[in-house]
Design brief:
Blueprint (H helix, E strand, L loop, with lengths): L1 H26 L3 H24 L3 H24 L9 H23 L9 H19 L5
Helix pairs in contact: 1-2, 2-3, 2-4, 3-4, 3-5, 4-5
Length: 146
């Protein structure tokens, strides 16, 4: 009984830390570092969603997936706000592209492992992460501007 209370308390603290990490990322003044922190938070939210799904808590899965989508959008918006050309300064853009691709693969695997009736939970998140990844890749790979 005492062990269950400890586990429950840790889960509550972990859920609170996910929210705190996004706030911490939003507070970061350096836009490139903000992007990195937001993508790290997206990974954390993904892991929390997997854990919640394994426990059968679909409402928590939805909340964690929403947090992940917000984090990915924050990362992309932060990189765009730098005003830098991804072709001339690719470091942070390429890092975000790689991390978004890895996250997309994880989402696809997660969706494949889900019960068929639960799969629509990830459709919006998958589409959003795919769009962000495609935009980052196009920014890095497109030809010279005319």
């Amino acid at each position: 009984m005492q062990m269950q209370l400890i586990v429950a308390a840790l889960l509550v603290l972990a859920a609170g830390s996910v929210r705190a990490d996004l706030k911490q990322a939003m507070a970061e003044p350096n836009l490139e570092k903000r992007s990195k922190l937001a993508l790290e938070n997206a990974e954390t939210a993904y892991a929390a969603a997997r854990t919640a799904y394994d426990k059968g808590n679909n409402s928590q899965v939805s909340a964690d997936i929403s947090e992940m989508v917000q984090s990915v959008n924050l990362a992309y918006d932060s990189l765009n706000a730098t005003g830098k050309d991804p072709r001339k300064s690719p470091k942070w853009f390429k890092r975000a592209e790689i991390e978004s691709r890895n996250l997309l693969r994880k989402i696809n695997d997660f969706q494949d492992e889900m019960d068929y009736s639960d799969r629509p939970l990830l459709n919006k998140a998958k589409a959003t992460v795919q769009q962000v990844h495609d935009n980052l890749l196009m920014g890095l790979m497109e030809g010279k501007r005319k």
